């Protein structure tokens, strides 16, 4: 890929990237699912859709739109591509599986790409953007689910949202309305039940903020995601947190001049 072409692909907005994802799932089928460690298409629609801030059904629809063009065993819609879908098809038709995987993972990571890296094969530095279903579920997908869902939750109605996910402050979002504040930490789960982990920082902040701290848990990305939320999660009586400690061994080497 040349520099101009790559910049064009990486500058796509979320809607166009969702079309790319639909084409990717249609064209590469099981190989595409395996690249993200998805157990099936429903999980792919949920995780990739919410990660891009679009409805999972949109990813499904885009895949179906492209299905008639590829030998994947599905009939698809068997109709002329919509203009923007045709544009995306033409833009990506020469890309290999590795190249298209890299483009999608780079969009999901929201990271900058050093274009000089492209002088070597994409497969040589693709590990910079390793994304599995589990990583997306516990991060971007669950967070974007909350952003889409919170206006519909009565207790949060009318609150303004401030994204703190990259600030390391012990919560993901601050919600404000007048003098009222809520601090929300979002967790995602692959299944309907299981365990969640809070970092030491999140635990300390939850202890300090108590009823102003909300733990928002998105469950069942494998099938149909839904949510629960817990104010003052450490004392609400619905979650039993147990302290876990791990000893990390760090190895270093001292150089002695001889």
Describe this structure in words.
It is a single chain. The chain has 258 residues and is of the alpha+beta class. The chain has 8 helices and 5 strands, in the order H-H-H-H-H-H-H-E-E-E-H-E-E. It has helices at residues 3-10, 14-36, 41-51, 56-66, 83-92, 97-109, 133-149, 200-209; strands at residues 160-163, 173-177, 180-188, 213-219, 226-231. The protein has a 5-stranded mixed beta sheet. Strand 4 (213-219) and strand 5 (226-231) form a beta hairpin. It is elongated, with a radius of gyration of 21 Å. The model is unreliable at 117-129 (pLDDT under 50).
Helix and strand composition category: alpha+beta
How many strand segments? 5
Gyration radius, rounded: 21 Å
Q: Tell me the span between the first and last alpha carbons.
A: 48 Å
Sheet with most strands: 5 strands, mixed
Low-confidence regions: 117-129
| SSE string, helices as H and strands as E | HHHHHHHEEEHEE
Number of helices: 8
Strand content: 5-15%
Main sheet: strand order: 1-2-3-4-5
Percent helix: 25-40%
Average of per-residue pLDDT values: 87
User: What form results from the Cα inertia axes?
Assistant: elongated
């Amino acid at each position: 890929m040349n520099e101009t072409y790559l910049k064009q692909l990486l500058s796509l907005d979320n809607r166009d990237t969702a079309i790319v994802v639909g084409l990717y799932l249609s064209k590469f089928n099981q190989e595409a699912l395996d690249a993200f460690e998805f157990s099936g298409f429903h999980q792919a629609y949920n995780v990739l859709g919410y990660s891009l801030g679009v409805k999972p059904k949109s990813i499904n629809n885009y895949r179906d739109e492209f299905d008639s063009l590829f030998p994947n065993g599905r009939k698809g819609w068997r109709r002329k591509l919509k203009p923007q879908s045709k544009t995306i098809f033409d833009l990506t038709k020469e890309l290999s599986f590795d190249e298209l995987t890299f483009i999608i993972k780079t969009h999901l990571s929201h990271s900058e790409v050093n274009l000089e890296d492209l002088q070597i094969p994409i497969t040589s530095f693709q590990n910079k953007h390793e994304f599995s279903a589990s990583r997306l579920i516990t991060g971007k997908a669950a967070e974007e689910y909350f952003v889409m869902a919170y206006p519909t939750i009565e207790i949060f109605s009318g609150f303004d949202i401030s994204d703190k996910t990259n600030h390391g402050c012990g919560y993901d979002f601050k919600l404000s309305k007048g003098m009222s504040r809520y601090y929300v930490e979002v967790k995602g789960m692959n299944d309907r039940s299981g365990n969640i982990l809070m970092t030491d920082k999140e635990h300390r902040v939850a202890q300090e903020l108590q009823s102003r701290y909300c733990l928002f848990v998105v469950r069942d990305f494998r099938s149909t995601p839904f949510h629960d939320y817990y104010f003052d999660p450490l004392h609400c009586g619905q979650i039993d947190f147990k302290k876990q400690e791990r000893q990390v061994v760090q190895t270093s080497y001292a150089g002695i001049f001889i």
